[in-house]
Amino acid sequence: MNLRVILLLGMLWTGAGVRAENWPSWRGPHRNGVVPDREGPASFSKERMWKVKLEGRACSTPVVWEGQVFVTGLIGGNDVVQAFDLKSGKELWRKELGAARLGRTQRIGSSANSSPLTDGRHLFVYFKSGTVAAMTLQGKVVWKINLDEVTHPDRILWDRGTSPIFAGGHLVIAVMQQAGTSSLAALNRENGKRVWMTERPFRTVGENGDSYSSPFVAEVDGVETIVTWGGDHLTGHDAGTGKQLWFCGGFNPRPERVWRTIASPSGTAGVGIVPYGREDRVAGIKLGGKGDITKSAWLWSARGWGSDTCTPAVHGNRALILTDTGKTRGTLTMVNATTGKKAWQKTLPKSVHTFCASPVVVGSRLYVARRDGAVFTARLTAEGIEDLEEINIEEGVIASPVVVDGRVLIRGDRHLVCLW
Question: How far is CA 275 from CA 18, 280, 376, in A?
């Protein structure tokens, strides 16, 4: 047996050097904020860190494919996509995609809130301007459209915030707004042409129709289903056609007038974990059925430890909710997804600052970023968290952590930071 064959067999046995770890969407490779089959760093050090300056502020979470980090943002008044080398932070390329449209506020919003998405062949991006584009991973534009021209115009009160997803073989974007017409739209991934559009005509009050949350995809009753939250309703749509299969209400019976939606729902074990009512409430909703499932779908609800902005991390029959604002901000609650029973509840160090970034669990470790730039990691146990570590990158953070190849990427207000 020659040396080349021996080396190849060794690589196959150990898995060393076979593939880089990827992070193709803002909630990771499994689209749920949990990656059980990899490990991230247990501590941080400023001696083990690179940071690169970003010329314009944005809130989108980076994605990673084969050692390239892709970031959307703002440069010189234009929407832009940049690629960086994961190991060194060196900029590989940048591409401007036309004039940006600033949001109503640049304090906690931006012109690039929606996170990019990749299938390993193309990178898909979406901006406040309405620009949706597909690019090669080398920065060449394959197609570009304005979503306002193929669906309904953007009239959302603050900034667009929903991130695109893959469903039914298409690129799907949710546009949910109080003043305009809410809809889901599917675009052909090869040319950007609209495949289908489904309106979402729930009547609500105040800001409640405005939703900045992203859908998730699950197989429900044997059908690939797009599960969408906003307008005081959770809905399930056939991923192939956009047809609404079922809807669940009951979230706002009074109704309250300022229950706009920011946090996205998460799905696991046939249950949708739905934060609602600002940071105060969370519910477990059984997915599936036909038509109005409101009376049968509610499995549990709780008050006092929900989430306003942060999306739950879910896996198996467990859900981890981070309470991000209010008096109980910094509270982590692990629950049984089916029953809502608390396994444990712990609190991160107290601060006047809130959280916008969603929690991420990689292997046995939790990663959380606070609005002021504090980044935490801790080991998850059956009783809670242990070995808590903290570092502060000393600038605002809204984007969620990304964990690849033993490194943690944090997109701040002014820099892209890599910790390991």
Answer: 39, 8, 22
3-state secondary structure of 7: helix
pLDDT(385) > 80: yes
pLDDT at 106 (0 to 100): 56
The per-residue pLDDT of the chain, averaged, comes to 93
Please tell me the predicted confidence (pLDDT) of residue 338. 98
User: To which residue do tokens 């060196």 refer?
Assistant: 90
Please report whether residue 99 resides in a domain: yes
CATH number, domain at 361? Answer: 2.130.10.10
Cβ neighbours for 260, distance < 8 A, ≥ 6 positions apart: 157, 178, 206, 207, 208, 209, 210, 211, 212
Two tokens, residue 72: 């959307």
pLDDT, tens digit, 9 for 90 and up, residues 70-79:
999 999 999 9
Q: Residue 286 domain-assigned?
A: yes
Give the count of domains, the chain. 1
Residues 6+ apart with CB under 8 A from 352: none
Q: Phi/psi of residue 312, each to 5°?
A: -60, 150
Specify if 11 maps to a domain. Answer: no
Note down the domain range covering 220: 20-419
